[in-house]
User: Which sequence fits this backbone?
């Protein structure tokens, strides 16, 4: 089965299993900061850190003017506070210089690839972060590839299991049905957190078991 058909089938099965997800988009700059906070932590700690950050600094100007230890303390639940606090401040400095204010709205006039190239040129911003900003900040039809999506793509044979998450993003991007990228991403996250987990996946009740090359190889072994 060609990858287009495999992915289309997966989209359909996951929507039958979990429904068509809905979400509320954030301001693109908020989304960028949240995604920086999300690196190497879980959603609960990320969200707590973001709430603490905005309570401490209600405006981006106040955050930019704050000292690093204050920012680091605010985002402590997300971990790597020293690294992330510096990265957030550096990112805000760049945004103000590049777009003459605390906004990413000029990116909306650019193509997906141009936005990805611009954002990933910044230290600490990878393809996943850029794709999240595009998908959930600008409503673009693009599927970010995080650890769950990457793991599932390898197990279902869409990519070589030894490839990188960035390579997986580029490999599956052209094969996702038009208009389904965000739904696909969110349902893959749910699938990866509840069934196709990193350890002890629930293969017995998996709706995608017939398409899984990982379980077939495991059975042969």
Assistant:
């Amino acid at each position: 089965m060609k990858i287009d058909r495999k992915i289309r089938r997966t989209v359909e099965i996951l929507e039958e299993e979990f429904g068509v997800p809905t979400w509320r988009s954030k301001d693109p700059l908020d989304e960028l900061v949240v995604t920086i906070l999300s690196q190497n932590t879980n959603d609960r700690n990320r969200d707590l850190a973001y709430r603490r950050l905005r309570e401490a600094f209600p405006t981006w100007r106040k955050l930019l003017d704050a000292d690093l230890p204050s920012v680091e303390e605010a985002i402590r639940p997300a971990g790597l506070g020293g690294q992330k606090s510096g990265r957030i401040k550096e990112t805000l400095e760049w945004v103000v210089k590049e777009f003459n204010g605390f906004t990413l709205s000029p990116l909306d006039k650019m193509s997906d690839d141009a936005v990805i190239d611009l954002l990933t040129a910044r230290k600490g911003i990878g393809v996943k972060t850029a794709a999240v900003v595009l998908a959930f900040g600008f409503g673009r039809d693009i599927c970010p590839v995080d650890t769950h999506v990457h793991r599932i793509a390898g197990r279902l044979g869409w990519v070589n299991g030894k490839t990188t998450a960035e390579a997986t993003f580029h490999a599956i991007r052209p094969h996702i049905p038009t208009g389904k990228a965000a739904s696909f991403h969110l349902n893959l996250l749910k699938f990866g957190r509840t069934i196709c987990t990193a350890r002890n996946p629930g293969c017995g009740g998996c709706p995608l078991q017939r398409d899984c090359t990982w379980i077939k190889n495991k059975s042969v072994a």
Summary: The chain has two domains: 3-21+144-220, 28-137. The chain has twelve helices and no strands. The CA atoms of residues 195 and 204 lie 9 Å apart.
